[in-house]
Each structure stands twice: as structure tokens, then as C-alpha cells.
Amino acid sequence: MEAQKLQVKIYAQNPPAPDQLVPVFHRWIRERVLDEQAMDVADYEHVHHGPGVVLIGYAFDYYWDLGEGRPGLVYARKRDAPPPATRIVDAVRRALVGCKVLEQEATLSGLTFRTDELLVRLPDRLHAPVTELGYSAFHAELRPLAEELFAGEKITIERVGGERDMLGARIKAASAGSVADLLARVS
To answer: Which residue, among 66, 74, 167, 156, has the nearest Cα to 116 in the 3D structure?
Structure first.
């Protein structure tokens, strides 16, 4: 599968109000916290189950996503993705880095992320068709990552969305440890 666009969502526990993320994301731009070029912050908190607050980058975006009625951090690769063999691992790693940095933010005390579940989507209908064949290819790419990420835990990978949605899958594990634990497995 040659999809350049992909998203990884990691769900929050004890989430802050979305407006608390605006100054945090602005600081990330000023202090160059990330190893990618971040340019702007947009507040979409008024959109029901929408993207919440977005840190806009050249090749990526980070969303404080309110979709599914479940807040979490989404890393979205828009362009210049690594080669197909490493692009999903790279996106998961970058999502975990974002989560780790957010957990360390003093102004967001109490924020943690669930590490037993993540959502991976491919918003690229041309290169990731929402068909059984497309899902089979996607699942084949996700399985080795899930096994590495959840290190021996029982895992499930389930298709999410319908034919009008983007191709997506939810990976679940019985337990997984901390964000730092998962990050160590994909670094």
C-alpha cells in the first residue's frame, strides 16, 4: 500500500479542556519542541466531535481530537511520509512522542494517555481503498507493528468505519505499560 497520508490517535485519560492546548502548542512552535516544522495553531473547539485544537506543520498536524466523543492526540502525516515499510511505525512513534511531551506539560497536570488502544487511519482513498482487499493489505502492515508494540500481549485488530469513511483499524491490547514503554519499543 502506497498511502502517504495517515493518522494515529492515542486516547487521553484525565483530558484537559481543549483551550488549554492552545498556549502549549504555541510554545511548541516557539521553542521548536518537535523535530518537524510546526507553523500555526487553530482552535476548532466549536466543532462537535471535531479536531479540537490543531498544531499545523508542513508535513504533519497534531490534533487534540474530540472525535468519537473520546479526546486524544492524533498525529496526522500529510505529505513526505517515509517509505511504506516504515511509515506506520514512524507515525506511531511521533504520536507517542507528542503524548510523552504533553504528559510532561506542567500546565496539563493529570493528563495521561491510554496505551492499550490506538486508532490508525489512512485518509487516502486513492492509495488506500476502503475495500476488503484494501483492509487486508492494511491489516498485514499493522500486525507486525502491533506485535512489536504490545510485546507479547494478546492483541486484536479490528476494522473501523464503513465504506464512506477512511480506511481504519483499532489496535487493542490487554495491557501495555506507559507511553515511555511503548516509545522504547518503536524507537
So the answer is: 156
The widest CA-to-CA distance across the chain, in whole angstroms, is 45
**Nearest Cα to 37, choosing from 53, 59, 16?**
59
Whole-angstrom CA distances from 83 to 1, 118, 123, 126, 131 are 10, 22, 17, 17, 23
Q: φ, ψ for residue 76 (rounded to 5)? A: -120, 120
Residues comprising the chain, all counted: 187
Q: Are β-strands 72-77 and 112-122 bridged in parallel, bridged antiparallel, or unpaired? A: unpaired
pLDDT tens across 129-154, in order? 788 888 899 999 999 999 999 988 89
* 161-184 residue pLDDT tens: 888 889 999 999 987 789 999 999
Cβ count within 10 A of residue 39: 9
Q: Which residue in 142, 150, 148, 144 sits closest to 168, CA to CA? A: 142
d(CA 1, CA 15): 34
Range in 2-6, 15-19, 91-95 the model is least confident about: 2-6
The rounded distance, in Å, linking the Cα atoms of 86 and 133 is 21
